[in-house]
C-alpha cells in the first residue's frame, strides 16, 4: 500500500460523499496520517509527531519533482501539505527513518535485501490465502450478510 495514495483517496472520498470540496482538507489528512493515526493505535506517547522522548520515525520526500509544482513554501498560499496529500506518491520518498535508524536511503532499502523479501512474501502468500479461504468458509452466513451490505 502507498500511504500517500491512501491519504489522497481519504480526502477525495470525503469531498465526494459530502459533495463538499472543502471537506477533509489537506491539513486534516496529514494530521490523520500522523498524530491521529498514532492516537488510534494507542501509541500517541511513542509516535505520531517528532518530539523528545518519542521514536524518531520520519521520511524525506523529494520535492524537486514536477508533481510537487508549484511548491509555495511560505505565506498564505503555502501548499506543502496539499502537495503531500494530492500529488506525492510512495516512490517520491527518498529516505525513511524508523526509531532513529535509516532503513531506506536514496530510495533503496539499506537493512534488508528487497529480492529476498519479495521471495519470502511470494512463498508465504499461498498459505495465507488458504487460511483466509478457510476462515471465510467457517464464517458462512456472517460473511455473506456483510457482502450484501
Q: Report strand %.
A: 5-15%
Give the beta-strand count.
4
- The rounded Rg comes to 19 Å
Please report the number of helical segments: 5
Low-confidence blocks of residues: none
Strand order of the largest sheet: 1-2-3-4
Helix content: 40-55%
Approximate shape: globular
- Counting copies of identical and different chains, the oligomeric state is single chain
Q: The biggest beta sheet, please?
A: 4 strands, antiparallel
Q: How is this structure best described in words?
A:
It is a single chain. Helices cover 48% and strands 11% of the residues. The relative contact order is 0.10. Strand 3 and strand 4 (108-109) form a beta hairpin. The chain has five helices and four strands. The chain has a four-stranded antiparallel sheet with strand order 1-2-3-4, with no helix packed on it. The mean pLDDT is 92. Helix 1 (3-18) packs across helix 2 (26-40). It is globular and about 55 Å long. By secondary structure, it is α+β, with helices and mostly antiparallel strands.
List keywords for this structure.
149 residues, alpha+beta, 48% helix, 11% strand, globular
Amino acid at each position: 500500500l502507498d500511504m500517500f495514495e491512501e491519504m489522497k483517496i481519504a480526502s477525495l472520498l470525503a469531498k465526494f460523499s459530502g459533495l463538499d470540496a472543502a471537506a477533509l482538507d489537506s491539513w486534516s489528512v496529514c494530521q490523520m496520517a500522523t498524530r491521529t493515526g498514532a492516537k488510534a493505535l494507542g501509541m500517541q506517547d511513542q509516535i505520531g509527531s517528532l518530539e523528545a522522548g518519542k521514536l524518531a520515525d520520519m521520511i524525506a520526500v523529494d520535492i524537486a519533482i514536477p508533481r510537487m509544482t508549484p511548491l509555495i513554501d511560505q505565506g498564505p498560499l503555502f501548499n506543502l501539505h496539499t502537495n503531500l496529500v494530492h500529488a506525492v506518491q510512495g516512490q517520491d520518498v527518498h529516505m525513511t527513518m524508523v526509531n532513529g535508524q535509516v532503513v531506506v536511503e536514496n530510495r533503496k532499502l539499506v537493512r534488508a535485501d528487497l529480492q529476498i523479501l519479495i521471495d519470502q512474501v511470494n512463498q508465504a502468500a499461498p498459505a495465507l490465502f488458504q487460511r483466509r479461504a478457510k476462515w471465510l468458509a467457517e464464517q458462512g452466513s456472517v460473511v455473506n450478510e456483510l457482502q450484501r451490505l
